[in-house]
Amino acid sequence: MRDPQRYEISALGLSGTEYTVEQTGTDKNFRPEYEVRDVTGETIFRCTHEMYEGNDTFPFVDTDGTELFTVEATGNWDIAGDYLLTDGQTGEDLVVLDNDVSLLQDTWRIRDAEDESILATINSRGALYTLARKLLPAGQWIGHSFEIADPEGSSVGTVESGFAVFDRYEVTIRDRSSVPVGPIVAATVVIDAIQEN
Question: Mean of the per-residue pLDDT values for the chain?
């Protein structure tokens, strides 16, 4: 098994196992804004989902506005495509997030940016909830529930949200020795933003 630390974002240094990812509103251009906090409530980073000429971009910044890393779609209107996470300090492409489009289940994979080996997967739990979120008039307010799995498919954590106008997720990783924590927390922001659009 690969060392998950190899894929951690250099400026973050995340050491915990619980994080809150919250959509805090929208900016003046109606783009969703997100904030990530640790278990003490301290803000770790922020992000605004940006789109330029149909290309999804997620610049993640610290509380001073310094760029930490970016996640960017590798193609236009890439709802079911690849999203590349690049470390803002080293310029290194760390991981790729990719998504399988399905009406019954959302499956996101976190892969090595070079050889595409799977580092973790994030799967939605419950086809009825997934259908309700996609088909009901107020479905976007129904909470999400995801299972985080390591490369061997063993469950190592969860991503949970409740019923709310703005999504708020509790990310819990039970075994941080087998998956890259930073990319999983970043992926939670990307997943919510892509599903909202």
Answer: 85
